[in-house]
Amino acid sequence: MTTLAAFKNFTSGLSEQETIMPVLFIGHGSPMNGIEDTEFSRRWTQMAKEIPTPKAVLVVSAHWFTKGTHITAMDFPKTIHDFGGFPQALFDVQYNAPGNPVLAKETADLLHSAHVELDHDWGLDHGTWTVVRHMYPEANIPVLQLSIDYTKGPQFHYDLAKELLALRKKGVLIIGSGNMVHNLRMVAWDKLNDTDYAYDWAMQMNSKFKELIAEGNHKALINYPGLGKEAMLAIPTPEHYLPLMYNIGLQTNKDEVSFFNDKAVGGSLTMTSVRFG
């Protein structure tokens, strides 16, 4: 069992370091990626080896959609199994990474655009643990979640993200976890294992999103309804897209941009992920 004493070095907060941490947007897809050896989960494992070891991880997950902004602030966040109809093995997973209440308070204090509630009830939902357990399987790095305020639009989340830049300088890995193209109503369930199958509009929008990200055209990404009817098919509801606003909001002009896991599943979902920096 991981003990709080093992993380004494985190209790005084984090100091700035010479290198700035990358930022990741990760298409998390099905919860089954959390326990299966897939091309997606293998790439998450590899990514952790390619970037500096973080002092903490802060995840903006599509699955913590709240009124107002909240951040987990408990010593040990629970593992949340926020899904149904999956094998028991998925429900049996416990990812026992510690939290960091001091870092949670420091993060809340950074966010002047919103009143941030320190949360002791949530935990790590599947938008977080299914990814992070592959990246850091020893669960020895503190993990926090920041919620998405569903009463606010993309511009608010983009602006809020800019206030988190200091965390990158302190060795915190910030992950936006969602999916750029995410239309569950139109999933071709018989094609879930065919990563070469996608509807034309899904591939069109996936390519457009990548183009805009590579160009640094944040305005168009924020105002995505202006990208046409294909964009509204790709984003029928905003929760899986809004985590991307935190990634582009944290992007600096020195960050190189690269894409990974650039595949479609089920016709109407894309796993396309982005590394900034």
Describe this structure in words.
- By secondary structure, the protein is α/β, with parallel strands linked by helices.
- It has a single domain (20-276), classed as Protocatechuate 4,5-dioxygenase, Chain B, CATH 3.40.830.10.
- It contains 10 helices and 10 strands.
- It has helices spanning 39-50, 88-91, 101-110, 126-135, 154-162, 165-168, 200-215, 218-222, 229-234, 243-250; strands spanning 23-27, 56-66, 69-72, 116-119, 143-149, 172-178, 257-260, 264-265, 269-270, 273-276.
- The strands form 3 sheets. Strands 5-2-6-1-10-7 form a 6-stranded mixed sheet, with helices on both faces.
- Helix 1 crosses helix 4 (126-135) and helix 5 packs across helix 10.
- The longest helix is centred in the C-terminal third of the chain and has 16 residues, at 200-215.
- The radius of gyration is 18 Å and the shape is globular.
- 45% of the residues are buried.
- Residues 1-12 have low confidence and may be disordered.
- One of its GO terms (molecular function) is ferrous iron binding.
- Its cofactor is Zn(2+).
- Keywords: Dioxygenase, Metal-binding, Oxidoreductase, Zinc.
- This is 4,5-DOPA dioxygenase extradiol.
- Belongs to the DODA-type extradiol aromatic ring-opening dioxygenase family.
